[in-house]
Amino acid sequence: MISIQSPPKLSLAEFLKLPETKPASEYIDGNIYQKPMPKGKHSAVQTFLAPAINQVAIPQRIARAFTELRCTFAGRSLVPDITVFSWQRIPLDANGEIENTFEINSDWTIEILSPFELTLF
Predict the structure, then answer these.
(1) Phi, psi at residue 90, to the nearest 5°?
(2) Which of 3, 27, 1 is nearest to 14 (CA)?
(3) What total number of domains does the chain contain?
């Protein structure tokens, strides 16, 4: 009888030390998943929706949309197509500028599903 062993799971800290992949990889429950490469229709929705949200939300200091921003929280590290953070929750550094690392969950997480992805559900 042949024993097949799965590769050892990485910790979240070990995952975060790995080089970024293109498309992005996500860490969920000890497993690494690489997102599918976005296609034209997906990209069109993403590049329209994020600026539309920001056009309304930023001037009023309500929120801000970010595209493909890594968010690491609750033992996972995700890279949604669009994340939206309410204005007061946007992480800032000591200079009052937006942090590079977001270690909190977003208020909205938007994943744009392509027709291929829809067949998976």
Answers:
(1) -70, 120
(2) 27
(3) 1
Q: Is residue 7 part of a domain?
A: no
- Residue 28's pLDDT is 94
Report the CATH number at residue 25: 3.90.1570.10
Q: Under a CB-based contact definition with an 8 Å cutoff, are residues 41 and 48 in contact?
A: no
Domain membership flag for residue 60: yes
Average pLDDT over residues 83-111: 97
State pLDDT tens for residues 65-86: 999 999 999 999 999 999 999 9
Q: Answer yes or no: is 2 within a domain.
A: no
Q: What is the pTM of this model?
A: 0.85
Range 13-16 contact pairs with CB under 8 angstroms and sequence separation of 24 or more: 15/77, 16/72, 16/77
Domain around 72: 12-118
* Contact (Cβ atoms closer than 8 angstroms) between residue 42 and residue 21: no
Three-state DSSP class for 61?
Answer: coil
